[in-house]
Design brief:
alpha+beta, Nuclear Transport Factor 2, Chain: A, about 130 residues
Length: about 130
Amino acid sequence: MENLKKNRALILEYFNAISGITKTRELLEKYTSDEKLIEHILFFDGAFPEYELFIEEMISEGNKVIVRGRATGTHKAKLNGIPPTHRNMDFPFAIRYTIANNIITDHWLIADQMLLMEQLGVIEPQSEQPA
């Protein structure tokens, strides 16, 4: 039980530490050794400088913590060839972290990229299909 609380506290501290500021490799390496996670965050912060993260739900089991949350920010730099739109994004994601020795060692992420493209004006909003 104590380990679950420590893992949850680490993720909460991590979200608070990186949300709303310029993310640096040095800062990220305080919380994770997962190179793919570091690269993803630096890439995303390049397009949405100082984006914010919000935890909506957190579940922990063993050495895993799952977060359902939202990312918000403004598109101010190129994103995969898409020039800055200066539009706001607010999109949901779910991420699973693996933690060992009080550091994130692995992650798995799923995010609504179609909604992001709609919010940036790259694609038209998908109309609701009748049931």
